[in-house]
Every structure is written in C-alpha cells, then in structure tokens.
Amino acid sequence: MNFLGDWWPYLLLIAAGVLPNEVWRMLGIVASRGLDDESELIIWVRAIATATLTGVVSKIVVFAPGALGAVPLAVRLAAVAAGLAAFFVMRQSVFAGLAAGVAAILAGIWATGGLGSP
C-alpha cells in the first residue's frame, strides 16, 4: 500500500520548491529589521527588483512561450496597455491592473477567433 498515493508529486513540489524559498524569505525578514525603508540602499534594491521584474514580464509578452505564443502579439501588447491603464486609473491597484489585463487578453482571443498558430 502506497502511503502517499497520488499526492507524492505535490509533496515533492512543496519540499523541493516552496520550502527552500520560504527559508530565504524568512531570513530576509529577520535581516531587514531595523532598516530604514527610505534609505538609499533600500530604494536602490527596490529599483533593481522592479527593473528585473519588468524585464522578465516584457520578455514573456514579446517572446511568449507555450500557449501564450499562439495569441497574436498585438493582443498581448493591448492587454499589457489595458492592464497598465487600469493600474494607474484605479490608484495603483495591482488587482485592477491584473484583472483588466486578463480580461483584455481573453477578449482579444475571442475577438480574433481563438488561438492561432504561433
């Protein structure tokens, strides 16, 4: 009898993927106590993190992997524009930006007749 049954891949994912990352996150929280949020070092780190995330998202949008590659580039770019517009219009609400971007890409897929070939 297999104790884990069909759950072993999920447990492996948690053990190998989530737990190692959580250790570093907790160490970061402990190490950052007492740091001034407005110090030049923290502002610089925040800028580097934002630029890195922007680069990764831009690469995924332009050079889309998998099923996203079947969505026309114009639809992907329009979804990004809609998400950014909603983000700023709704007073920098991440949820509003994400919801608008997802809605825009789904509407674009529907309007273009579904997923095309990449």
Question: Mind explaining what this structure looks like?
Answer:
The protein contains four helices and no strands. The chain is mostly helical. It starts with 7 loop residues before the first helix and ends in a 7-residue tail after the last helix. It has helices at residues 8-31, 40-62, 73-89, 94-111. Helices cover 69% and strands 0% of the residues. The chain has a domain at 59-112. Helix 3 runs antiparallel to helix 4. The mean pLDDT is 90.
Brief sketch in words of this structure:
By secondary structure, the chain is mainly alpha-helical. 69% of the residues lie in helices and 0% in strands.
**How many helices in DSSP terms?**
4
Q: Give the N-terminus to C-terminus distance in angstroms.
A: 45 Å
Radius of gyration of CA atoms, rounded to a whole number: 20 Å
Question: How many beta-strand elements?
Answer: 0
**Mean residue pLDDT:** 90
Low-confidence stretches: none
Please provide the ordered H/E string of secondary-structure elements: HHHH
What characteristic shape results from the CA principal axes?
flat
Quaternary structure: single chain
**Structural class determined from secondary elements:** mainly alpha
Main β-sheet: number of strands, strand sense, barrel status?
A: none
Q: Helical amount among residues, as a percent range?
A: 55-70%
Q: What fraction of residues sit in β-strands?
A: under 5%
